[in-house]
Amino acid sequence: MAALGWLTPRRRSATARSVLAGEASAEAARKSSQELEELAPPDEPDFPVLGDDRAAAFFDLDNTVMQGAALFHFGRGLYKRKFFETRDLARFAWQQAWFRLAGIEDPEHMQDARDSALSIVKGHRVSELMSIGEEIYDEYMAERIWPGTRALAQAHLDAGQKVWLVTAAPVEIATVIARRLGLTGALGTVAESVDGVYTGKLVGEPLHGPAKAEAVRALASAESLDLARCAAYSDSHNDIPMLSLVGHPYAINPDAKLRKHARDFDWRLRDYRTARKAAKVGIPAAAGVGAVAGGTAAAIALHRRRR
After folding, report:
1. pTM for the model
2. What tens digit of pLDDT does each residue of 146-164 get?
3. Which of 254-281 are b and which e, b meaning 16 or more Cβ less than 10 Å from the residue's Cβ?
4. What's the maximum distance between 2 C-alpha atoms anywhere in the chain?
5. C-alpha distance from residue 85 to each of 22, 88, 114, 219, 300 (Å)
């Protein structure tokens, strides 16, 4: 029997370090379980309601339906078509890096991007930008659609409900994306045009924050919708006014403020990001910024050598 002693587990007293390891593991398991509960689809056997034509769904676009900002992807496509200079591309690249890593809509960055876009499209025909938008969607946007959010939109469509994008992006870009995804339509920022040519000005203000809520309210009235039976989806705390309008608000890939608000008000959460905490970790975040900055620097250097 002595020869089999090695098969018998030895009893060892727990050290302070092993106790610490055990407690840390238990806490990590608890947090993991909580996050999995958030990610798991809740029991919703009757939603969306089949055939409820007084219900509709409203989806924010940037970081909700699509990874990153539509306006920045559109800017990349316009640069490829020589609509603007390399220095403008560098600004677009930095704004996109900030948006992806921070996961929030910085008003100053977004305003700068909109001003840049307006100056770029001034004098061009609306029909030209719509046609180019179709090409840019295939080049830069199609592969960035979140499959999980797309499935949520499809569930509403399958139930016979209308599905609208609601975004601060130009309505022309939003309309292209909505059509390509098979959605009903889009609410977006309207750029002024005269005789089909952009003037470089906005009609009113960007469709952002409270303006989104007002747009949804107006559309619901025009479509005879019951907002208490409608759903809204967004990643940003800026859209809390819109989310608060409907009876079924969802926080999708939420920023920290929206996640807290959703927990406080018992809103449903979905997170489709594969590495949603990467921005909180120094090395991956720095690598992301470095890659964009390095690529931009290389592009500028190449441009200068060609001069």
Report:
1. 0.69
2. 999 999 999 999 999 999 9
3. bbeebbebbeeeebbbbbbbeeeebbee
4. 97
5. 57, 5, 16, 39, 10
Using an 8 Å Cβ cutoff, are 146 and 219 in contact? no
Show which residues are catalytic.
60, 62
Residue 247 CA to residue 232 CA, distance in Å, equals: 8
- The 3-state DSSP class for residue 197 equals strand
Which residues are within 8 A (CB) of 191 and not within 5 positions of it... i.e. 6 or more apart?
Answer: 118, 121, 170, 171, 172, 198, 199, 201, 202, 203
- Which residues are within 8 A (CB) of 290 and not within 5 positions of it... i.e. 6 or more apart? none
Q: Compute the distance between CA of residue 184 and CA of residue 160 in angstroms, rounded to an integer.
A: 11
Q: Report phi then psi at 199, rounded to 5.
A: -95, -15
Per-residue pLDDT tens digits for 258-302: 999 999 999 999 999 864 443 333 323 333 333 333 333 333 333
Q: Is the Cβ–Cβ distance between 119 and 200 less than 8 Å?
A: yes
For the chain, give the number of residues: 307
Spatial CB neighbours of 224, under 8 Å, sequence gap ≥ 6: 54
Rounded average pLDDT over 132-151: 95
